[in-house]
Amino acid sequence: MTYLNDPREPQEEIVERTPARIRVVRVVNALVHAVCWIFALVLITHILLVFGEANPANGFAQLIDQWSRGVSLGLRNLFTPDGPKLRTLFNDGLAALLWLIIGGVVTDLVSRIGLPGPKRVWYRRTIS
User: What is the CA radius of gyration of the chain?
Assistant: First the structure.
């Protein structure tokens, strides 16, 4: 008499194998996603510092201001309302939103180019 989970019976194990190409696409997408989010967070932090009237002589405020200038996508003077708070909100807010959109589009393109056709999963069966 044999039982369903008899330890003397050979057990079947299913192991998923992820091809190297899929791993590379996942790593590239994770890096693009992380970089775009970091740039957006820098711009959002700059907006918060301007709205909070942070001391412009402070080292952290200067670092964020310089970094946000570098990642603003040339939108620093696109909108020119009267107050510096609204100017920063519109210009840096738009740049932050664009970074998130760019990240989504690039990761989608990398997936479409790097993984043509249906996504396949490879299995290996082992009997012990």
Answer: 25
d(CA 47, CA 42): 9
Q: What is the pTM assigned to this prediction?
A: 0.74
Give pLDDT tens digits for 70-115. 999 999 889 999 999 999 999 999 999 999 999 999 999 998 888 8
Q: What is the pLDDT of residues 28-50, one digit of tens each?
A: 999 999 999 999 999 999 999 99
CA–CA separation, 94 and 78 (whole Å): 10
Give the Cα separation of 15 and 126 in Å (integer): 8
CA end-to-end span of the chain: 21
